[in-house]
Specification:
The protein has 328 residues and is of the alpha+beta class. It folds into two domains: 2-168, Butyryl-CoA Dehydrogenase, subunit A, domain 2 (Beta Barrel); 178-314, Butyryl-CoA Dehydrogenase, subunit A, domain 3. It is built from nine helices and ten strands. The strands form three sheets. It has a four-stranded mixed β-sheet with strand order 1-4-5-8. A four-stranded antiparallel β-sheet has the order 2-3-7-6, with no helix packed on it. Strand 2 (72-76) and strand 3 (79-87) form a beta hairpin. The longest helix is centred in the C-terminal third of the chain and has 29 residues, at 208-236. Bound molecules: flavin-adenine dinucleotide. Residues 54-58, 63-64, 88-90, 140, 295-296, 298-302, 304-305, 308, 320 line the site of flavin-adenine dinucleotide.
Length: 328
């Protein structure tokens, strides 16, 4: 655990996103809850980048209330047969494999009727339709399943216990989306940009208003970093790291967007350029991040949902009433 933290820090310093070298959600989930066979089959190939994954969680009508998902899987012989639809599935058009939540026990209470399956995106019956975001790129997709047959042993955890496995994945996803190392990396990039770019011949870094704003971001970046050490300490002690993980997702994703916003403001009219202009700074990185990072405040659980979890589960505030259409 300590080693992977050090590797994460070194990757960030070198400007490498760890997600490119193995799925930061699937690998730790398999290591924590998979069978020995699944560990042997998937972990090293994924880390080496030979297999890429997408995450089939959200459905139309089941996002924040993920446990209400309705994609069905029924057993037929040695297979599950899956029918239904996922949405916002990032990278599904490129992924080799999917980790996917399906309802296998329709009569059980909603959190107990879900299973976590892993299968190839080449399986017959899967149709992927890309969705374009405001960046102009199709980063996510609709994914349709029609009589998709998946062997019953391609399940992580036990049948009906997929909610537990899904939450293990979300736990890792939250810390990777709000990764303090990546935020620190981004902070370094903004400082570089402020040293390089000038207004009326004066570097942005010497502009008092921007310096003030930069220091506020630096304070947030450092508190995110030290919160990351809280996650690590709790993990090493075998304690629950839920609270600092929710804080990481909430703060890290908002901070990344705040840094991109500041860059766009400082670039002035250059910040409005996009797509191939010869005057683009940093190849349009800040414009792209400004738009994409808004999405990451939503993806992996929205900021509002992180705040709910922090207030209800960590601060002991009253829980919001739960509603289940079937009255369960
Ligand atoms: C860039 C991006 C990438 C994504 N990638 C994937 C992916 O790869 N795989 C995948 O499965 N999904 C993915 N998603 C989907 C993402 O997980 C969902 O968008 C998210 O969980 C919110 O669900 P929703 O869109 O249905 O919004 P809703 O749940 O309908 O929420 C709408 C609004 O209501 C608020 N809200 C809802 N419930 C509450 C509540 N109880 N209390 C307070 N406020 C509430 C939300 O915060 C939000 O502001 C991605 C989303 C984005 C933006």
């Amino acid at each position: 655990m300590l080693k992977s933290h050090i590797i994460g820090e070194e990757f960030a310093k070198a400007g490498v996103r760890p997600g490119h070298d193995g799925d930061p959600r699937l690998v730790p989930t398999i290591l924590e809850l998979g069978t020995e066979e699944q560990k042997k089959t998937w972990v090293s190939k994924t880390i080496r980048g030979e297999i890429s994954w997408c995450q089939g969680y959200s459905e139309p009508g089941s996002g924040s209330d993920l446990a209400s998902l309705s994609t069905r899987a029924v057993v037929d012989g040695d297979d599950f047969v899956i029918n239904g639809q996922k949405i916002w599935t990032s990278g599904a058009q490129y992924a080799d494999m999917i980790f996917c939540l399906v309802r296998t026990e329709p009569d059980a209470p909603k959190h107990q009727g879900i299973s976590y399956l892993i299968f190839s995106m080449d399986t017959p019956g899967i149709e992927v339709r890309p969705l374009v975001t405001m960046t102009g790129d199709a980063t996510f997709n609709e994914v349709f399943f029609t009589d998709v047959r998946v062997p019953t042993d391609q399940i992580v955890g036990r049948r009906g216990e997929g909610w537990f496995v899904a939450n293990a994945t979300l736990k890792y996803e939250r810390t990777s989306l709000g990764d303090p190392n990546q935020a620190e990396n981004r902070f370094r990039s903004i400082v570089e940009m402020m040293k390089r770019e000038t207004v009326d011949g004066i570097p942005l870094i010497e502009h008092p208003t921007y310096r003030d704003r930069l220091l506020q971001l630096q304070a947030r970046m450092l508190s995110l970093k030290f919160n990351g050490y809280r996650v690590l300490t709790r993990q090493l002690r075998g304690e629950d790291a839920g609270l600092p993980r929710w804080i990481t997702k909430l703060m890290g994703c908002e901070l990344n967007h705040q840094m991109a916003s500041m860059a766009i403001d400082m670039l002035g009219e250059l910040g409005l350029l996009y797509d191939g202009s010869p005057y683009l700074r940093d190849e349009g990185f800040w414009q792209q991040r400004f738009m994409m990072d808004l999405g990451l405040i939503i993806g992996g659980g929205t900021a509002q949902i992180q705040k709910n979890m922090i207030s209800e589960r960590a601060l002991g505030m009253p829980k919001e009433p739960k509603y289940d259409e079937r009255g369960i």
